[in-house]
Amino acid sequence: MRHLPLAVPLLFLAACGAGNGDAPPAPAATEPAPSLAASEPAFTGPALSKDDLASKVCFFTPAEIADKLGFTVEAGKPDTAQLQAYGMASCVYDGSSNSLRITAIWLDPAQVAPSRASMTRMSGGGRVEQLAGDADSAYLHDMQDNGTSLHYLRQNVRIQLHATSGAVPFATMKPRLLALRRVP
């Protein structure tokens, strides 16, 4: 039997509003759905399909990673087994003592605005630093000895770029992660 990572059921429970054994609450008839002003579209450009995400979840080349992050890695290894059912895909670029992991969560285009409005900063320890005014609602997560992550919402995909780089401090990795082009 194949086991799902713990994050998948937790994301599912959080999305359903469950987790305490109760059924999700019925939506209130008087509360309007979250919306953006006409001048603030949820995202620009076409929505990315799950098939498109599956075909390009390894967005970077090893040369791009070496240039921007300062360490060498092998070609990315995609994992799209959970994409159709759970909307999650990932790609891991491994190096001798470093790695970059991309986790991409596909959102139905109708869910982008509510997701952007309620992006949580789940840290699991360490320090979280919001990037004020960032068009992609980005934030950084300093996981201390476990690396640094950049989280953001682009088009209809939530992205986490997690760099594990030995003892490279957050202050050094932060500008490197921010130098990577935003994907998709």
Quick overview of this protein structure:
The chain is of the alpha+beta class and 184 residues long. The chain has helices at 7-16, 50-56, 62-69, 83-86, 112-117, 170-179, and strands at 77-79, 88-94, 99-106, 127-130, 139-142, 148-154, 157-164. It is built from 6 helices and 7 strands.
Q: What's the SSE blueprint?
A:
Blueprint: H1 7-16, H2 50-56, H3 62-69, E1 77-79, H4 83-86, E2 88-94, E3 99-106, H5 112-117, E4 127-130, E5 139-142, E6 148-154, E7 157-164, H6 170-179
Antiparallel strand pairs: 1-2, 2-3, 3-7, 4-5, 5-6, 6-7
> How many strands in all?
7
The overall pLDDT average reads: 79
Structural class based on helices, strands and sheet pairing: alpha+beta
Low-confidence stretches: 1-40
The main sheet comes to: 7 strands, antiparallel
Strand order of the largest sheet: 1-2-3-7-6-5-4
Q: How much strand?
A: 15-25%
Count of helical regions: 6
Q: Determine the N-to-C terminus distance.
A: 33 Å
Q: What level of helicity do the residues show?
A: 10-25%
- The total number of structural domains is 1
Order of helices and strands: HHHEHEEHEEEEH
Shape: globular
Q: Radius of gyration from the CA trace?
A: 17 Å
Describe this structure in words.
The protein is α+β, with helices and mostly antiparallel strands and 184 residues long. It has one domain. 24% of the residues lie in helices and 22% in strands. The chain is built from six helices and seven strands; from the N terminus they run αααβαββαββββα. The chain has helices spanning 7-16, 50-56, 62-69, 83-86, 112-117, 170-179, and strands spanning 77-79, 88-94, 99-106, 127-130, 139-142, 148-154, 157-164. The longest helix has 10 residues, at 7-16. The model is unreliable at 1-40 (pLDDT under 50).
